Amino acid sequence: MTTIRAARAEDASLILAFVRELAEYERDPEAVRISESELLRDGFPADGEPSYFECLIAEEDGAAAGLALFFPVYSTWRGRAMHLEDLFVQPQFRGRGIGKALLTSVAARAVERGCTRLFWHVLDWNQPAIDFYRSLGARSLVEWTRMEVSDAPLIALASAGQAAV
Questions:
Q1: What's the pLDDT tens digit per position in 118-147?
Q2: Among residues 22, 17, 5, 50, which one has the least CA distance to residue 126?
Q3: Is 135 left (phi over 0), alpha (psi -120 to 50) or beta?
Q4: What is the helix, strand, coil percentage profile of the chain, to 5?
């Protein structure tokens, strides 16, 4: 039996393990640089600060099977939205409806909070995931290109902005 529950602070090591497994699957294991302490700080702050993310854990007969990690964003065109950062189900648990249970749970939270949009990214080579998402009513936004700046270029960009102020 599958159950979906909110992650707790004591799940930080499990979340990190799932994130590392996902990075392996996505062929980029070296990209994971986050620590358990950062996950604790950002997802389960002890000082009353708002969390940067929420996480759901799927369990199959009591065994941790997967996660969905998400956070609110804002669309200037549509208002409240939710971004699903990671959806991961361990290989031995795939095909049992766990991914769908996690995704529908995130969607329910988005609707409860008045969000008009739930979005996420999927690698273009991950056809099984693309087919799964399309089967649930998702559509590809091929006209948009995802942009990113990180690490040293992010610091350089921030510094350039400070000099201009």
A1: 999 999 999 999 999 999 999 999 899 889
A2: 22
A3: alpha
A4: 40, 25, 35
| 103: Cα within 13 Å, side-chain hemisphere | 18
Q: What would the pLDDT profile of 9-51 be if each residue is shown by its tens digit? A: 999 999 999 999 999 999 999 999 999 999 999 999 988 899 9
Q: Where are the domains of the chain?
A: 2-164
pTM of the model: 0.92
Structure tokens at 17: 């393990």
For domain 2-164, the CATH class is alpha beta
Nearest residue to 129 via CA among 84, 164, 161, 160: 84
pLDDT at residue number 122:
96
107 three-state secondary structure: helix
Q: Name beta bridge partners: 22.
A: none
Q: What residues act catalytically?
A: 133
For the sheet with 63-75, list strands across it: 2-6, 54-60, 63-75, 79-89, 117-120
- Rounded CA-CA distance 38/58 in Å is 22
Q: Which residues pair with 60 in a beta bridge?
A: 2, 63
